[in-house]
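Work Package 3 (structural annotation) set out to generate three-dimensional models for the target panel prioritized at the project kickoff. During this period the team completed the workflow that converts sequence records into discrete structure tokens, so that structures can be stored uniformly alongside our sequence database. As a representative example, we reproduce one entry of 377 residues exactly as it appears in the project archive.
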Amino acid sequence: MTAVQKVAIAGSGVAAMATAIQLAKAGIAVDVFEAKPELSALGSGITLQGNALRVFDALGVWEDVREKGLAFEGLTLRAPGPDAPVIAQLPEVKTGGPDYPACMGMYRPDLAKILLDHAEKAGAKTTFGAKITGFDATDNKVEVFVNETSAGTYDLLIGADGVNSTVRGLMGIETAPETTGMGIWRAFVSRPKDVEHSELYYGGPVYIAGYTPTGEDTMYAFLVEKAQDRFGVSDDQAVEIMRGESLAYGGPWNSIREDLNQGAKVNYTWFTKHLVPGRWNRGPVVIIGDAAHSCPPTIAQGAAQALEDAVVLAELLVDADRVSEELWDTFHERRVPRVQAVVDASVQLGEWQIEGKKDADAPGLLFGIAQKMAVPA
């Protein structure tokens, strides 16, 4: 007997779909409600650390992920300039353990499609164009309203609906994402054969210039700048801005600029930070993933933490025979300190870059977090 028999999930990102997969596999009725009219994934590529890959294996999607993504080891640091000289080759901690690569790059829409397919195969029902507009909760039941109409009564509502979570607001939680002062340009481009893993350039006109391979012939490139109001620029203007800011960087950036000239799609977002303090649940309603916490992608742990939220919550709900205060205590004890460490470290790295602290121990901070993440959630 599981703690819940019928669950509603808001959102269709990695936290939502990972939870849907695990609960549906256990025979729990799962309804996923996504406000957007179709499956979509913002951004171009995603970097997945080993602890995220470990979760994919637990979900049963690892083989499909491995086929679509590109696994790699190590990190190269380069300096600005026409020759883009290599200044360091860094090993990476295998945060998923010895059975998984240290890291993987992947096209975001491919990952979204894999997770949706597996959720539906497991028995979860997904409805698009379905915005959760309210709920009426008692101690152990919650009536969920979708597009202003009752969708039924559930044992639990899980808000996995992203950084601008509607469910979080409906719960009365005032904590919300705030900008860290950085913005990022991203583009999905072709991959030169000499790019074998992530490479980062520090210095020059932006805080960070880098790229991560996502497949045999693809990668995503990014430029991290001071946060600005870039959201009204046209597609052509976006390409020109990204191209102009990249002129200080040579090496593979020459190929990236060629792709930008050929019309590669560019998108822009701000880095945010937040962590809902204390409990993430209010009775039979809980938020997870980006709804509960966000951080800059400076250590590429955002997706991994969302996935860990999902599998820990699902594990507790499947193993227990009822939803109790003890269950919620255990969930928060396992998740909040771990997420807090990731958010703090991610924000600290960004602050060091903004402040220009060249003597900061970034490698030590990265290694320390990697060691923590190597211990399963």
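The CA atoms of residues 190 and 218 lie 4 Å apart.
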